[in-house]
Amino acid sequence: MLDAIRSGRRLLSSTVLSGVVLLATMGTASAQGVVIYRCTDASGALTIQNGTPCPKGSKQERRVMEAAPTPPAGYTPPLPAPAPQPVVVPRALRAPPVVPPPPAPPAAAEPAVADGDRLPPPWLYECRTYDDDRYFSDNGDPRPRCVTLTTTGLGGMIENGSNTSACEMKLDQCQRVPDGALCDGWRRRLRDAESALRYGASEDRAKAEAEVQRLTRVVQETTCGRASPGP
């Protein structure tokens, strides 16, 4: 009984001593690297040992794992860089969104008229008024116009603001434009109508637009609108 107790004490002391040696070995190995032994015995059983060589009769594989370098005394790892913060632009400084204008509707295609199907333009008259004002007209026999006369009293004085009024009926003198000058006459009449539309009174705008459209058709759809001049 006493021998068994003594044997147990010797085994405990040997175990403690082995632990101290193992810790010292690991402390040294931690500075140089960790040694791992892979042991395979005769029966094929695999054992992995840390720092302790394999027993005799076993197949041994030795591997050294590098230890991480120890930072110097007083070393402080750098702090991670702060994440970038989004820049907030005040609403008052933001540019308004650009809204593209709506697409313009496609223009209606004008009916093409072949040169062989074109007709000569209508007759045109150049008329002259009593005060030598000239204009073009479709009508060669215009209605007479009433020209207001100045009235005088019995004493020969001009009466302004009186209820008395008189006018003289005057006729415009018109003559037909020659065939060779018809296209030039219609184009001049179209220019005059466009000027009246641009600078005329707003209440007559609808009538002026209709006149410009009518004269444009005459110029474009008759022989005046040929691609190449002809007889």
UniProtKB/TrEMBL annotation:
Protein's organism? Agrilutibacter terrestris
Name of the protein described by the UniProt record: DUF4124 domain-containing protein
- State the superkingdom: Bacteria
Region Disordered: start and end of each range? 51-78
Q: Where is the composition biased (Pro residues)?
A: 69-78
